[in-house]
Amino acid sequence: MNATPLPGIEDEHGFTPRPEYKKKSIRSFVIRAGRMTPAQRSAFERQWAQYGLSLFSGPLDADAAFGRSAPLVLEVGFGMGDSLLAMAKAEPDKNFIGIEVHPPGVGRLLNNAADAGITNLRVYMADANDVLSDCIAEESLARFQLYFPDPWHKKKHQKRRIVQPAFAQMVRTKLTPGGVFHLATDWEHYADHMMEVMSNAEGFSNQAGEYLFAERPDYRPITKFEKRGERLGHGVWDLLFEKHA
């Protein structure tokens, strides 16, 4: 198992988990306030040694981290972690890596993964762009998942959207030939932006057909958030783009 230092700082409350990132002028996320439960905080101390990976450890040896060789799936922004945990349970033949900057969500996933005895899951609490740049090997991912990223819907903030041409090309370098970049959003304008970026991205083809959105694959669980949105009449758009062989 990879044993990495707990990411965070010592302050007046004791140890406080904090995401890892390199200094930059524009980030695709903000650290939102959120109170951690005692169980979530405790999970960092008890489970990070088993599940945690560090940005500052450099290039990841996935086979060593998981103790086996298996197709690798990476998800950016797993929120509270319920759907990622469900996928790891449902596809034990694959290894899963999750990246998230929200400490309560990471703590919840660590706690629930340990309770469920999950062994095919590892976690970064770090900036996704930094992890992709510094840690993930080229042509190592069978699937890259980006579900419900922050839409940054105000025009002045749209430069912060993670889905940009340069990001698409970074993902392409990390996917194996035939690997899939799976995006999902419940913001129609962002869905159109995603479709425009990905349709013009070199080295990808749309599995559903040119400029067509895909049906939700069975492997992507419907989250509570998504079900609530459907009851309110909100749409969800999935995009499946395959890297050319």
From TrEMBL:
Positions binding substrate in this chain are K154, D186, T223, K224, F225, E226
Q: Which spans of this chain does the record mark as coiled coil?
A: none
Q: In its keyword annotation, does this UniProt entry include Magnesium?
A: no
**What GO molecular function terms would the record report?**
tRNA (guanine(46)-N7)-methyltransferase activity
Pathway the protein takes part in: tRNA modification; N(7)-methylguanine-tRNA biosynthesis
Q: Which reaction does it catalyse?
A: guanosine(46) in tRNA + S-adenosyl-L-methionine = N(7)-methylguanosine(46) in tRNA + S-adenosyl-L-homocysteine
Q: Which residues bind S-adenosyl-L-methionine?
A: E75, E100, D127, D150
Top-level EC class as recorded in UniProt: transferase
Gene3D superfamilies attached here? Vaccinia Virus protein VP39
* Similarity remark: Belongs to the class I-like SAM-binding methyltransferase superfamily. TrmB family.
**Alphabetized NCBIfam families for the sequence:** tRNA (guanosine(46)-N7)-methyltransferase TrmB (TIGR00091)
Q: Which HAMAP family match?
A: tRNA_methyltr_TrmB
Q: What does this protein do?
A: Catalyzes the formation of N(7)-methylguanine at position 46 (m7G46) in tRNA.
Spell out the protein name for this chain.
Answer: tRNA (guanine-N(7)-)-methyltransferase
Q: Give the source species.
A: Simiduia aestuariiviva
Which gene underlies this protein?
trmB
